[in-house]
Amino acid sequence: MAKCAFIGLGVMGFPMAGHLKAKGHEVMVYNRTAARAEAWIAKHGGKRGATPAEAATGAEFGFVCVGNDHDVRSVLHGPTGALAGLARGTVLVDHTTASAELAREIAEKAQGQGVHFLDAPVSGGQAGAEKGMLTVMVGGESEAFERTKPVIDSYARACVLMGAHGSGQLAKMVNQICIAGLLQGLSEGMNFAARAGLDGAKLIETISKGAAQSWQMENRALTMLAGKFDFGFAVDWMRKDLSICLAEAKRNGARLPATALVDQFYAQVQARGGGRWDTSSLMHLLVND
């Protein structure tokens, strides 16, 4: 069993850290809102650090799961940051969906003080985190990955090394690009079905057995038809992720015309007050045009 620090107890980090504790690992947590950390301790046990550095002191593995590039820097750097607490030879894992540029920046900083680094964004949403069934895309050195994978497996159904530092984040960008286009197509299909008078439940039961099948179809199609969007992965976070994808595409020359269009559709959802709605709320623009 490993000594772990877990920094960031949001909708994803809270259950992920809980799975570590449930698997028998020693876990010390840190969250910017102390009450959230206290709630985690009340549920799972463990200890709370007053700063990221305190939480990371003595840990073999330091895990971070926060909001964006700025948040990652704020909990890693400086005298109270996690890097100040991690000793040589330990492994720092960033589960935040962030830029590949940031991953390479942190890797260089960590390596300068003898700490191994893995960028390891996740897919599977809150439900996947709660069930311990996340997909983890990792960038970094193979030796650090092999050492860390058994610990990550506490909350993952798949954990794959994609390549060098930054590759995990690049893989997550592909994931979000695919989801954006898929959800727009699913929204258009479900709106078409409703206007055509088809039985939505029977339709999904049928076409989900064929080539149109997807996780989004099986888990979101019926709620989309019911106009229910107050759950799941928020539009605000999806736009953050897509902005990372579009910025990276400018650097590598990839064309993302559909992604850019869907991003603007999400901007319209935000304008309707749906920033915290599930990403399947693209349907709202079609039903309420």
Whole-number mean pLDDT: 98
CATH superfamily descriptor of the largest domain: NAD(P)-binding Rossmann-like Domain
Order of helices and strands: EHEHEHEHHEHEEHEHEHHHHHH
Distance between the termini: 55 Å
Number of domains: 2
Q: How many DSSP H or I helices? A: 14
Name of the top-level CATH class of the largest domain: Alpha Beta
- Write the CATH architecture name of the largest domain: 3-Layer(aba) Sandwich
Placed side by side, the strands forming the largest sheet appear as: 3-2-1-4-5-6
Structural class: alpha/beta
Tell me how many strands there are: 9
Indicate the overall shape.
globular
Q: Kindly provide the radius of gyration, computed on alpha-carbon positions and rounded to a whole number of angstroms.
A: 20 Å
Sequence-ordered SSE layout with sheet pairings:
Elements: E1 3-7, H1 13-22, E2 26-30, H2 34-44, E3 47-48, H3 52-56, E4 61-64, H4 69-76, H5 82-85, E5 91-94, H6 100-112, E6 116-119, E7 122-123, H7 125-131, E8 134-139, H8 142-152, E9 156-163, H9 167-195, H10 200-207, H11 215-225, H12 235-252, H13 257-271, H14 282-287
